[in-house]
Prior knowledge:
Elements: H1 3-14, E1 18-19, E2 23-30, E3 35-44, E4 47-59, E5 62-68, H2 74-80, E6 88-90, H3 101-104
Parallel strand pairs: 5-6
Antiparallel strand pairs: 1-2, 2-3, 3-4, 4-5
Amino acid sequence: MDKLTKDAFLKEMRAYAGKAFNGYSYFTCDTEHDVYAIIDIAQLREQKIVQASLIIQLMDDFIMIHTDINDKPLVDALVQAGVPRDRIVLAYMGETLETSPKQMEMPSSPR
């Protein structure tokens, strides 16, 4: 993955961390395996809520989004930041490297 794309990814990913309504969202990563996550810890009345709202894996030139339960999906933030949509795989929506948007483009019809 080129440095510009990875920098944009990290900037957008980190934007999901911080103070939340009833808790805090933490950015965490395993850079050796290129796995990144946002972990949410909140208190709602008597119940403690702990969940991973984003789980991302960088694979070659692709950003594989395994989980995204945020109001503003990471894919939208990445595309707005200039990351090509065909480099983003929405695994949580059933996309795979083989069925990413670049692979699903229809061939042009002969004229």
